[in-house]
Amino acid sequence: MSKGDLSREANGTEARLSRASVGRLSLYLRRLEELLRDGALKVSSSQLGEALGLTDAQVRKDLAYLGHLGQPGIGYPTRELMTAIRHTLGVDREWKAVLVGVGNLARALLRYRGFQQQGFRIVALFDTDPAKVGQQIDGLTIRARDDLPAVVTAEGAELGLLTVPAEAAQSVADVLAAAGIRGILNFAPTVVRVPAGVSLVSVDLTVQLEQLAFLVQLGGDS
Amino acid sequence: MSKGDLSREANGTEARLSRASVGRLSLYLRRLEELLRDGALKVSSSQLGEALGLTDAQVRKDLAYLGHLGQPGIGYPTRELMTAIRHTLGVDREWKAVLVGVGNLARALLRYRGFQQQGFRIVALFDTDPAKVGQQIDGLTIRARDDLPAVVTAEGAELGLLTVPAEAAQSVADVLAAAGIRGILNFAPTVVRVPAGVSLVSVDLTVQLEQLAFLVQLGGDS
DNA sequence: GGATGTGAACGACTTCACAGCG
DNA sequence: CGCTGTGAAGTCGTTCACATCC
Description:
The structure is a homodimer. Chain A is α/β, with parallel strands linked by helices. The first copy, chain A, folds into two domains: about 5-90, Arc Repressor Mutant, subunit A, CATH 1.10.10.10; about 95-205, NAD(P)-binding Rossmann-like Domain (Rossmann fold). Chain A contains nine helices and eleven strands. A seven-stranded mixed sheet of chain A has the order 7-8-6-5-9-10-11, sandwiched between helices. In chain A, strands 1-2 form a two-stranded antiparallel sheet. A two-stranded antiparallel ribbon of chain A has the order 3-4. In chain A, a hairpin with an 8-residue loop joins strand 1 (about 5) and strand 2 (about 15-20). The longest helix of chain A is centred in the first third of the chain and has 19 residues, at about 20-35. Chain A is globular. The first copy, chain A, binds a DNA duplex through helix 3.
């Protein structure tokens, strides 16, 4: 399997989703929720693309991956499309996550409603600071990091949210991987490596802010 | 100028930096800081790429944009390379930013040391909640959103950090743009549009988390 | 007519491979 | 000899354009 593409099945039908396409599926899903709220039972590729700044062709290419849901001359059935996207993204079920490193960012993630709404549930908090261990936040007790493997197993958590300082990120990632975690969302401003079989998505605020500085300096339109 | 590339100058020498390249420059810079701390006065493209999971060719292509800094047979001079990257990214000066929407995420950003270190300084806070207006955080008073245009002008702020709920994001972005802000870092989980002349970078946590769910569901290596 | 699905053209980004310089 | 800089090749993603179907 080559680097940037993600094949769907082992069978013959070649079907791929680039990282960028997956990101757009999330955006489509969100937009569809709005459109459905407005009573739109059918939706066209141009309607969907419009608000997101995408061409209709782009939208159709992305949605083609889901199968033949579109009806020529009509558009896509809103509900079915949402179901298909949810299934493809894997958000038609609950995901349990543990959160390591309880600072302000962690609190922000804990209180962020969007996560629960999409089926993500934080089931445990960890920190190394003895002053924090034992404290309660939103009904969860902060635990010592040594308890991590046992808790991950007991709770059946599959995802890890990494909000520790950069220096600690790699070692915590290693612990999470060893504990059987299958995906890590890393917020530490450092490159983290994970073993095969574990997925990684990084949100690097420093990089994003520098990106913005560059664009502004360029005098950019976007 | 086509969509995904950003030309350096109007003159003949074709020189471009994709968004991805700019992101990698940030990573190089960070890695170089480490290497310099370890006493490395020269650095090779393979050394730099190794820790970041990039090929040496990729690194050289990115660095070629900065000019001919590399010395065949030797590598790149660490300090000069850092200076050049900082200059290109626009982080060799101070950027003043205002922060709109004072929740937990805002607090996390305020306390994040990496920002100050890279020359980003938050000079004002805004919120609509009357209970919050007037409060002090880290020496800054939370102001009413109506004061935004005047404060942006008075302080000479160029960047806006947008940590408001999704429903409010677009209208606040409009206000920021009208106030003369030149770049917006948006954290609200919604697509925001900005006028030409204003740059936008978005950090959409929902999208990132769904990306992770997708990758894990795929049973992915990365 | 209106909108989809998709090969083909196009464009952007990455990797290869090697000439050339220190 | 090692490492850079860079054309050329290769790969990936987006846009175009149109046959197809409701």
